[in-house]
Amino acid sequence: MIDQMVQAARSGRQNIAEGSRAAATSSQTELRLVNVARSSLEELLLDYEDYLRQRRLTLWTANCPEAQAVRNVANQCTGDLSDEQRYALYVEWLEHKDPAIRANAMRCLIHQTNYLLDRQISALEARFIEEGGYSERLAAVRLAERNRIKDRTNSTERIPPCPVCGKLMVLRTANKGKNTGKQFWGCSGYPNCNGALNL
Q1: For the segment 51-74, what is each residue's pLDDT rounded down to a tens digit?
Q2: Of 82, 98, 188, 191, whose CB neighbour count within 10 A is largest?
Q3: 150 domain residue, yes or no
Q4: Are 35 and 63 members of one domain?
């Protein structure tokens, strides 16, 4: 059971870190890894609760003074603290001689972590639905470029040759006379060639 709990704790931590690194390239991967972290920590939470129940030890309720004291430590974690400094804030519970206090303190910390992960998952899901991820945006840009090339190729195939000299024609707009404002095909060799076609 100890190995299982260590692996669940490690999986939670590692998947949060890997999800954070994946954020730069794929929102979908980040979301998947954060969900794996959340599941691992939920498994760890159940193991702590099983430990306490099987030994008939007290499980702290959410609003008991002990649980509130552990939760309130987060309010003291302002600014940049090292891992050692953060651990020192919880040391009275995490190194207590009573294993029930240690297990319950861990339950409180896992609940807090899961609450924050739930918020992160919701935000990631909303952002992914609205914007897609990096790989999705890259795919959209790639598709747009393919369509642009295809349109350019198709439009080139539709350009008629000049009936006078045979050069490709260009789309022009008349700026004088009775057809002012209307488009027509004019020879790309203009002014050397005055070939024109109506649209």
Answers
A1: 999 999 999 999 999 999 999 998
A2: 188
A3: no
A4: yes
Written as six digits, the tokens of 125 are: 């899901």
- pLDDT tens digits for 99-128? 999 999 999 999 999 999 999 989 888 877
Structure tokens at 162: 């000049």
Q: Distance between CA 142 and CA 144 in Å, rounded?
A: 5
Is residue 62 helix, strand or coil? coil
d(CA 51, CA 54) in angstroms, rounded, equals 5
Whether residue 127 sits in one domain with residue 33: yes
Read off the tokens for 25: 């390239």
Give the CA diameter of the chain: 100
Contact, 171 vs 160, CB < 8 A? no
DSSP state of 168: B
Rounded Cα–Cα distance for residues 158 and 150 (Å): 12
Structural domain including 103 reads 2-141
CB neighbours (10 Å) of residue 82? 8
Domain check: are 168 and 89 in the same one? no
Shared domain check, 194 and 133: no
Judge if 22 and 89 occupy the same domain. Answer: yes
